[in-house]
Amino acid sequence: MNDQNSPSSVDGELVSTGVRSLRELIEIVSGRSLKEQMPAEDFGLAEALPFPFLALVGQYEMKLALLLTLINPAIGGVLLIGPRGTGKTTAVRGLLDLLPPVERSACFYGCLPEDIESGGIDAVCPDCAQKYARGDSLTRTDRVKLIELPLNALLEDVVGGIDERAAIHERMRLKRGILAHADLNLLYVDEVNMLERSITDAILDAAASGRYTVRRASISATYRSRFALIGSMNPEEGDLRPQIMDRFGLRVVVEGLLDPAQRLEAYHRTHAYLTNPRQTIAAFSEVTQTALDEIAAAKSLLPKVILPDEVAQAGIRLVQSLKIDTLRAEVTLFEAARAFAAADGRTTVTLDDLQQIAPMALRLRRSDFMSKFIESLAREDEAIRGQFNQ
Q1: Which of 33, 107, 322, 350 could bond 111 through an S-S bridge, CB–CB 3.0 to 4.6 Å?
Q2: Which positions are annotated as active-site residues?
Q3: Whole-number Å distance between alpha carbons of 337 and 1
């Protein structure tokens, strides 16, 4: 028999045993010890480690617009317009660590306390009516999510359709689409100007009413879809239809950094993130937590923020002087100004708040075509009246 520490041959290869018993030798040869040491299989999955939002260099207006939308979703969302490589998508995905909490329905049917407040106890399902009578909460606390709409999404993916798993068992059941999953969340549409018309129309309908209905064969369902819409686009790739452009509250033009020092700092931070993303995220964790606390404080203060009449009148005069027709201009201007004041810890909107917000809220809202069209109609009406006077 071989010496205790001498090598032995297994399948033509030398294996140094170093064992004290035949059982240990059998375990080594059978591969059990080797299996225990083998690493886990790589399934190709990637953990979401977004670039820290506050690590973005410059781009003050873009960061401000996105943060104001987190504070006050009534702003109507944000449209980011700019060339490739200016950090638009990076900024939106970086919001993941800053998304505030939200109260969601804990019921299958989506019952909420405000349903009872507006429609009485019969406005909710029997289970929720019993919960309300016992004093139990009808909601649960959850974080706002970032829902991305893929460019290759089909209309059925967006609005929902027949559940294929139920169809296998010869049952008819609808599954929720992306718009339903976006309820009380942020819906991000990259390259929004490249969307198919049917998908654009579905998003517009849901954004306008906060809900939408899906009908397939003999069944239908209505889903809540209250979301803040964030879009990004490169104008080199095509224009955006005026109908969907009007749905975006704040419009931000994202340009490349002009300061060489800022561009160099952006490179250093990008290199650090690519080299060690966890370390880079940790380096900004303290300021990220501070920003999260500030957003929560501003959201709680927002209901107390008032818009003085003289400030509102100044805003109306500004909108009219710019010949802007859509009433969404005032909504965005005033709601963004309220969020701006809340972020500053104040409960009263000032003229300076309007001045800070006005470019983002009012740009790209004037229509030269409509102005010329209305002027031509006015001339035509005047000519008709002139004929009657003669």
Answers
A1: 107
A2: 328
A3: 89
Share of the chain above pLDDT 90, in %: 26
pTM for this one?
0.76
Look up residue 375 and give its two tokens: 């002027």
CB proximity list for 337: less than 8 A, separation 6 or greater = 307, 311, 315, 349, 353, 354, 356, 357
Assign 26 to helix, strand or coil: helix
Q: How many residues appear in the chain?
A: 390
Amino acid 1 reads: M
Closest listed residue to residue 66, CA positions, set 377, 343, 362: 343
How does pLDDT run across 96-151, given as a tens digit for each residue? 888 888 888 888 777 888 888 877 888 788 888 888 888 888 888 888 888 888 88
CA distances from 215 to 109, 219, 223, 267 (A): 17, 6, 11, 50
Q: In the chain, at which residue ranges do the beta strands (DSSP E only) sit?
A: 7-10, 13-16, 78-81, 101-105, 139-143, 146-149, 160-162, 174-176, 186-190, 211-216, 219-224, 228-233, 250-253
Termini Cα distance of the chain? 129
| 247 vs 318: CA distance, rounded Å | 20
**Cα–Cα distance, 371 to 63 (Å, whole number):** 33
Q: State how far the Cα of 311 lies from the Cα of 264, in Å rounded to an integer.
A: 42
Radius of gyration of the chain (CA): 29
Residue 150 in contact with residue 191, Cβ under 8 Å? no
Domains observed in the chain: 1-45 (no CATH), 53-100+144-296 (3.40.50.300), 305-368 (1.10.8.80)
Residue 264 tokens read as 């160099």
